[in-house]
Amino acid sequence: MSAFTIFLILIVIVAFLLVVVIMVQNPKGGGLSSSFGGGGTQQLGGVKKTGDFLDKSTWFLATALIILILASNLTIDSGSSIESKAYDADEAIDAPATLPTTNDDAVNLNDSIGG
């Protein structure tokens, strides 16, 4: 397994966690932090200020995602060439497009429409 594959798996995991953390939050203050009593100083399960925890975890995951994306870019092997099947520059230069020269080669639109 290459380093790029490992980074790609980590990026997917961090992106999923970031989506989950963002979905738990509510922009009007009605998310997870308000469902535990609404008080910013209330302590439940050892976590103080759940909103601050969610905010910090969002920033941490977003930063981790950016770092992982940049690190994965460094692991791509720049020596290997990726062949494009959509466009081949050599083939486009060697084989110019030709137009039909006789009426037999041309398509008659009236015949194909039925008119």
Automatic annotation (TrEMBL):
Pfam families listed in its UniProt record: SecG
Cell membrane among keywords: yes
Topology in membrane: Multi-pass membrane protein
Primary location recorded for the protein, binned into one broad class: membrane
Highest taxon above the source species: Bacteria
Transmembrane segments: 6-24, 58-76
Recorded family membership: Belongs to the SecG family.
Protein name: Protein-export membrane protein SecG
Species: Winogradskyella pulchriflava
